[in-house]
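Read as chain and fold; for instance:
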Amino acid sequence: MSGGARSGAWIAVASAEHVRRGRAGGFMQVCHGKAAPLRRIRPGDHVVYYSPTDRFGAADGLKSFTAIGTVLSGEPYAFDMGGGFVPIRRDVSWWPAEEAPIQPLLDRLELTAGVRNWGYPFRFGLLPVSPRDFDLIAGAMRAAMPEGLREELAA
């Protein structure tokens, strides 16, 4: 990136059904709507969602990357979903992309290569990922990255 500043890259974790809601609404939320994790993310950071399941609470074994995008400007904000549930969200510009299973990437990602219990870090709901891993995931998703982003990640 120019000026020595670097955007962060993150993996967020949620069921695919929840990710689809976020894509449709242009937002992300993590960790059952908690604010603290979203405060770690900055505008311009890149995020990819990993979905262990298609539906929340199901044991359907989806285990795929399901959305990818760039965090927009603005602070995390509360959104009243009704019924007393007020999660914290961040706005995201989602990129056109396909879902991609994690299995073929496990031996190639720095995060998981050679790690027997590779799924453990995903339990925290939000984790940083290297630019190399982010680029590898984006490629597997056939993501339409914004112009110049691939070079930015390589810098």
Helices lie at 16-25, 36-39, 131-140, 149-154. The longest strand covers residues 64-71. The beta strands are 9-13, 27-28, 46-51, 64-71, 77-78, 88-94, 100-101, 126-128.
